[in-house]
Amino acid sequence: MTVLADAAFRHAASMFQPKIRKWASPGAMAAALDHTHRQTAMLDLIDRELVALFDGDDHDRLMVFCPPQEGKSQKISRRTPAWLLSHDPTLRIGIVSYADNKAERWGRQIRRDILNHPELGITLRQDSRAAGRWETEQGGGLICVGLAAGITGEPIDVLLVDDPVRGRAEAESQTYREAAWDWWESNGSTRLSSRGKAVLMMTRWNEDDLAGRMEKREPGRWRIVRIPAIAEDRDPLGRHPGEELVSVQDRAPGYFRNLRTVRSSYVWNSIYQQTPTAAEGNLFRRADFRYWQGMPADPARHGVLAGQRVDLGGRAVALDDCWRFITVDLAASKRTSADYTVASAWAISGDGDLILLGRNRGRMSEAEHWDHVRPLQQRWAADTVFIEQSFISTTLAIDATAAGIPVQPLTADTDKITRALPATSRMKAHRVWFPAGVDWLDEWCDELASFPSAAHDDQVDTLSYAARVVSAHWLPQENAEQVAARRAPVDDGVIGQAYAAATGGSGDLDFMAIDY
């Protein structure tokens, strides 16, 4: 968080500080007006953060993340506007959500609170009857809109953003994420007045969501308060690691621990821990990652790879004995925001393990694709390049073919998550190996662990395609006992009768004579 030292900003921020305050916090006001109101340690912390935001001058933007149904929206979207207006009825407050009706619900409730509680000291204009837009006699008021509608009119002094996306489907859509960021850049942030303060609360479905982008693109500007359901290190509430959140819902002890056992880590970490990228991974779990080490070459081998060997957890594998290929995920743009072009070189061992040999990643034009892939092909003597069917006519395919390298098409016939499932199964079986010690290993592993919430998934795509290639092109090798067992005659009478009917013979079928 960056401390803003600008004198004009400090003067503007000080305008939020009332000379006389009837209630110390939104929670204190809610307790005085509503005997059913409950405070928890989490809500106390949010109260303190709100007071610090509106009274202080060291930051002007706040993010709050915590489990659902724990009172954060009631605190921030309902109680905070009334608390602020009760001390300064000139404030212009905006509430923005994913839809108009969600935002207007808060406007209707706040207006009802004002009318039912004259002790707030807020007087509404007689012509202000709309649920989503009303004014005070002093010129302040509230506007409630959906993200698509945006805020128009006069500048906003306080902007409260409450759930800018509807749920996981929108959060994982690049289109919706781009729309949310475009709203913030072109509308939300531009409507703030010189004394403007902003609060964002949302479920962290995706690390590239609105909050994630704000944190990356406006570093130090936002104060971030994340309160997980189960405490981790450096807990904001001072809990010990593993300690549960005391819920406003009077949940029984052990509720969150029990919930964690029946939720996937993908869901649990995003909704309840507010960390869309779990340290242990989501679909691809770090505990299942396996790493190969290089071994001295075998001088007795004279293949194209000169006897290179790798150690797969104590098993020596000669790469000359493996089939080697490349999978490519193409992007045809150099824009910084564009996807990457990724080429990954693989080997399939005799017993079906998938070995990542090397990887090239970058943003480039279509004309550069083959120059990006060729070093991998030459380094590992890969004999086939697999790319999506839709790119089969690109310069990569043309140039690779001209160089004598077969190009095979892959069909992207399902969504990315479904395509990744065969790879996740192989990972869980510990049949996928990554090179230990390469400088890009963290980048590779972090993207896998973040999938499908990461900003990019180009490397994951190459792994998903490699797993499909293994399934289509590799058959398990059989030892002598397995071959003998498979060829052993089965005398159930039916086979012999079928053979006799087809050949006119009456003898037994000679399984050993069949060419397998």
Automatic annotation (TrEMBL):
Output the InterPro entries linked to this UniProt entry. Phage_terminase_lsu-like_C, Terminase_6C
Query: Which Pfam family, any one of them, does this sequence belong to?
Result: Terminase_6N
What domain of life does the native source organism fall in?
A: Bacteria
* Sorted UniProt keywords: Viral release from host cell
Name all Terminase large subunit gp17-like C-terminal domain ranges. 326-466
What's the name of the protein? Phage terminase large subunit
